[in-house]
Amino acid sequence: MENHFSNAQRAEVLTQALPYIRQYNGKIVVVKYGGNAMINEQLKEQVMEDIVLLWLIGVKIVLVHGGGPEISEVMDKLGKKAQFVDGLRVTDKETVDIVQMVLAGKVNKTLVNLLEMKGGRAMGISGMDGRLIEAKTKNEKLGYVGTITKVNIQPVLDLLEKGYIPVISTVGCDRDGNTYNINGDTAAAHIAGAMGAERLIMMTDIAGILRDRDDPSTLIPEITCAQAAELREEGVISGGMIPKVDCCVEAIRKGVKNVIIMDGRVPHSILMEILTDEGAGTMVKGDGGIE
After folding, report:
1. Fewer CB within 10 Å, N or C, the chain?
2. Which residues does 33 contact at the CB level (< 8 Å), separation at least 6?
């Protein structure tokens, strides 16, 4: 497809992106990355290219990642069956060791390596490094599933100041040396809030918030936190979208300007969101309609 573009058209595209480049230069954008966009290798490369491009034009980009499918895969190989309660993985001591190994090890370093291959400078850390994510037990039934008690954001700020793309795996710790599995969306909301990020981008497996979940053309492009509560009561926001939207609202309450829920399966959706008029997905913003 690239061959159909003349040089003049390419120049025009870049010119149209200029106001957005100016707007986001030097600003913090947090990307929560997971789901199918993470499993498909070609999509994964495109996401990393997008992140490096934004980093090259001066966006302070922070990548927060999950890795649920990879954790399940390793558990299967080890003959350990995944159990879920209310959509949350039951995490015993053996499972939390696997979570730490897969997220802070394999997944994190694979993403760092990809970003470096695409021309970026990346540094991988976990929520345990520098006590970035402190946590406590969320529910005894879930074992080592953590709820965040404190975010120590300085290690991330240090990496940004040195010109790195921080890549953060969502495992947390407490003062007693326990490790916790932390929900990636929740971690991203807390991290973005602690940094006062310009934008939090939540990459998911659907187009955004849909009035009719079976019809992508019913995408709601923009809602406030108050409207999110109304849509939840109406049943428009339901199932797995409820905790995701709760995280968006939480991020805004903590000081993020706005949050985007977007389909990570669409190639270059991050660039479409940041550098074009069209945008992508659903934008959640404060009740004052903060731009």
Report:
1. N
2. 47, 63, 64, 65, 66, 111, 203, 264
Whether 64 and 33 have beta carbons less than 8 Å apart is answered as yes
Nearest CA among 188, 45, 37 for reference residue 113: 45
Orientation angle between helical segments 184-195 and 154-161, nearest 10 degrees: 70
User: Which residue type, as a one-letter code, is found at position 40?
Assistant: N
- In which band, very low, low, confident or very high, does the pLDDT at 289 lie, cut at 50, 70 and 90? very low
Region of residue 134 (phi > 0: left; psi between -120 and 50: alpha; otherwise: beta):
beta
Please name the residue ranges forming H helices in 25-132: 36-39, 41-56, 68-77, 93-99, 108-117
Q: Which among 281, 199, 263, 268 has a CA at the least distance from the CA of 51?
A: 268
Contact 228/61 with Cβ under 8 angstroms?
no
Quick check: pTM over 0.70? yes
